[in-house]
Every structure is written in structure tokens, then in C-alpha cells.
């Protein structure tokens, strides 16, 4: 199919913004006011001196986050290489956003860049069914993924249209996610939930960036990987506001954004519920026993959380009904001419039949070594998490089990289960990429688990994770490159 596009200038890089609800560090030095603002004098609004003073104060408060953002951006952009300068071959969210701007809820089939992972709906006897065979003029085409990434791209697509570069946008979001994860770790330390120092938190943030599957996902663009990376950024904002259920409305807002980016993150709502029920330092069993006297406060927080999540949730549900006739259907049951349709028709999107191959992809796939010629390879269906996230071994034998130990583990469990029973392992991929949905929670478990980063075995494990994921960032060639020779 041909697509009619107009040439647009390359997208500009947005400036990093401070996340909502993030307070400055308690020990951050605050610069004095500029000399022009003397006692009894008021500087003109918008004057250079006032703006400069505000920027200095802001940088003093968030200097580590800013530096982490810049370091992550430079490294991720460098590894993205030529991809960084061009739109990816799977820019589904751009086409969805442009469709909205053109006043339509579907996607114009005349401009589709390819037919990979698009949902096609056909009306047959008044029923919505998946398109089979050749496309027909009356078929309706939709993005088969949750829509919030398209919402985030909307202002930039409004400026650049179909030419917007989703690859560079993904790199920026990835760098922002690294800064947000550090900010979350710093917040947990200030709240007494961890005993990590600033330097340790920096190391853990860099571990997320370059020692997990986040590394190769953040440099590619493409609909599959960009959603994973944005999900990590929104998870950091959600957990920060959900801690002890202190900001229920904001937690609900970020929860809905995360869920409408990656549907498995819907189950992370359990973390807020657990924090609302047991926010104190007392043993959880004791707090649950006393809940009968304090249930109104917990119910109020859960209600406010639902209130924050409702606007986007209701919009998404209505959009799903309009497109596919069901509240929770994002489009994968309507994938056009996809290899997974046979399994979906037989077993559905989720079934115990898929468990074995997903467990194999997550834990049992190991690299292959060829001696003639010498070559190290991987299976594009998966690679064991023991290599792509080797810190897992320390989570099984923590030295400490503080207050957040069980809430984090339960959140990991409920987020992981959908991916293990899902019809697709994530192919093609480097490692089990669905684990990125709960990787921030796993790293938080390590942060509270008491293992010192100075121990040689821990340092060696961190280095191993970086080396393996460096390999993934360099070696992985996905579907759009291998099959389309893009």
C-alpha cells in the first residue's frame, strides 16, 4: 500500500521535566536569591536574574536526576546509532495519534507502513469479526495495543505528522525513566524504606538502564519495545505516589497511564491496595486484625485511587467497545494474518497451554556457542533471566525482609502471571522482554534486601548483567530488520 506523507522537519528533543509529586532532596543546598533581589525589593516578573535563581535552585535539588538523564540519553542514543535519526519500521502509535488528529478513531488504511500487528475488523451479519483473506474496502484498521503511548506522542505528532521520529522519542523516555527510578530510590531512602546511600541508588539506576533488558528495548523505537520502556517510567511515578497510599489520586492517575501502556500493569494495582490496608510500620498481620476499626480510612484511599484512575479507564473502555465491541479488548483477537491467530482461535489469548513455552523462554533458554566459526548466539524466543537479570539470585536469599518485602513480591507475582499464560513469548526478542513490566519491582526488592553493593559477588553479578545486556543492545536484530531487511 502506498502512503501519502508530507516532508516534515525532524522532531525536536523535549526538555526533561520534574515528575509530579517529587520533592527536592532534604539535604540539597539551596542557592541564595540573586543580588538584584535585595530585602524590600521585588524583582521584575520574568527577569533574567529571577529565572536564573529558580533554575539554580531547581538544579541543586535535582542535579543527580539531571546528570543521570543526560548520561542515559547519550549512551542510549549512541547505541541506537542510525536508528536514532529515523522513524522505526513499526510506528503504530504515530499513526494512531495522527488518525485522532484527523478526526477519525481508526487508521487510514491507505497510509499504513506495513500490515504487521494491526487489528482489522470486518462487519459480518452485524457482528465484528477478524478480517480474513484479502483486505476489503469496508474493513476498519486499528492499533492492536493500549493507547496511552499515542496520547503521549500526540503533541509531537501534531507538529510533525506521520514523519515524527518514535525512535528518538523512545530514547528520551528511556533516559527519563532512569532518572525517575533514581528519584524513586532516593524517596524510599528518605522515607526510611531503604538504607541505600546516594551512590548506591545511582548504581541501581544505572543497573536498570544498562544491566537489564531495558537497554536494548530503549534504543529501538517500534511499538512493542517503546510501550515496555514507557511502562517502566510510569511505574516509577505510580509506586512513588502509591507508597503508604499517601497520594491516592495521583497514584490512580499514573496507574491508569501505566495500565493503558502495558495491560499487565493493571495487576500492579495490588501494590496500592496493600499500602492502603497496611501503611504503618507495625506487623502486617496486626494491621489487618485492626482493620475493622480503621476500614473507613483505607476505603477512602482506595476510592480516591479509583477516582484518579477512572477518567482514562472509562475513555479506554469506551474506545475498546467502539472498536471491538468489548470493554477489555485492545485488538489482539483481531490481528490481521498473524502467526498467533491459530493459537488464539484454539486456546484464547491466555491459557495454561502456553505456560510451558513461556517458562522456557523466561528461565531455560541459554546462549548457543558455535566453534566453527566461533559465534555466540541466542534464541529470539527468549533468554534466561538468570543472565539478563542475574540480581534475581540475591532476591531468593535476602538479608533483610523490611516492610515492603511482601507487597513488592506479591506485585511481581501478579504482574508476571499474565505473561506466563500469554499466547506469545515476546518473539522476536533478546531475553524475555515481558519481564520488563515487573523489573522495577525486582530491583526495588534488591534495594531493600540488604545485600551490599561492595561485596565482590554482588559486584560480579552487576558486571555480568551489564555485559549480557550490552551484547543484547549490540547484537539484537528484530523482525523489522531481519525479515524486512530494514
Automatic annotation (TrEMBL):
TM annotation in the entry: 57-79, 141-162, 168-189, 201-219, 250-274, 302-322, 382-400, 406-422, 434-451, 457-476
Residue span of region Disordered: 1-23
Keywords: Membrane, Transmembrane, Transmembrane helix
Domain of life: Bacteria
Protein name, UniProt field: Glycosyltransferase RgtA/B/C/D-like domain-containing protein
Source organism (scientific name): Myxococcus fulvus
